[in-house]
Amino acid sequence: MRSTLSPISLAARRFGVAALVVSATVMLAACEEAATGTNAGLARASHPISPEMVALMQKKGVALNAPVLIRTFKKEAEFEVWKMKPDGRYTLLRTYPMCRWSGQLGPKVREGDRQVPEGFYKITPGQMNPNSNYYLAFNVGYPNAYDRAWGHEGGSIMVHGACSSSGCFSMTDQQIDEIYALARDGFAGGQQAIQMQSYPFHMTAENMARYRLDPNIGFWKQLKEGADHFEVTQQDVRAGVCAKHYVFDAVPADGSHFEATEACPPLKRDPGVEADVAAKQKQDEAKAAELVATGLPAIRTIYADGGQNQAFAAANLVDVSRPEAVAAGPTDWLVEPKGKKVSPVVKVAANQAATKAAKESMTTSGKNPGAPGTAVASNQPPAATSQSPMAVAPVAQASAAPAVTAPPAAKTGDWSSNLTAALFAK
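and the corresponding structure tokens:
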């Protein structure tokens, strides 16, 4: 919630934020190789909010320095910025098409895996970097308590410009200029931390049904619970970690603190919020069950190396990272329950139904698939390579679909076997 500050303390707060901007050091990471000149960085970091954005905020009924919240969706390649209204609830200010993200759907596990993290993160004034080699940047706060509890490694994951990603959320320079200014002004208004919610995709009933057999589904169900809390309250979601598991909008009933790797203590929650969240979850679960019952196939989406919002398909960007991977687009592999036998006729029908459903979904919802084209493949995914978590084979045509099988078992030590073991160890 927004802090209440006296004029003197507010002025001091603003001075402190300015000092952080001036003294920010270079944060080295896969996306951060070096710093630009200090003067250039400070000039960019001081750009005012555009008149067009000021007009939009006035239309939305939010103040220039109102608190900010961020949500990102990898599959759709969307970056949402929300601003808090006077009543303490957030309203969606703008959805930016994400210029580049790398890796696969699923959490970041180790340094160098090119994965963009998923989860709930905090951005503080000290994480703002005006001296980025990628125009402007801020650190998202990976790893968080959940990541550390699972032994996930790496760090200094950024939101930055330049449309180049090796584990970061990459925007265009023009986009990050505006996003950075919105965050800066939120801090100037007294906000202590910006919540960033990073998701694999929009956490809809349809997506949960489609990815029901993905190795990450246990983790994604946790993220959906957090997303449901935000959808219900439109407020910052209190994200705690205990028993190596997220808990949302809850505090220890005995006044103690959460320990990420220890058993969860008795929890205290808001009964009204919990009732509303439970009702939403029940509705979504019923919808997902209906979709599965009517034949919605289970899929697993594989990328050459991440994606890009389709809004950039005709932009001819010069500096985009790994353009060949963007051009390849994602491939949806049909997945069968282990041990279940499916006739070739049913497999071909499922393949064709998945293709039709994907096209209808994009037509009716207006959402893009997050890349220049989404194909439904019906042969086995290829083995992982050292260059990407999972390479993409040439797309198989639905009309010539051979037998569909689940993705092959991962070799010991690769990203999917380690992640599956971690997620389902309990």
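(Above: one complete record from the training split.) The chain has two domains: 7-201, 299-419.
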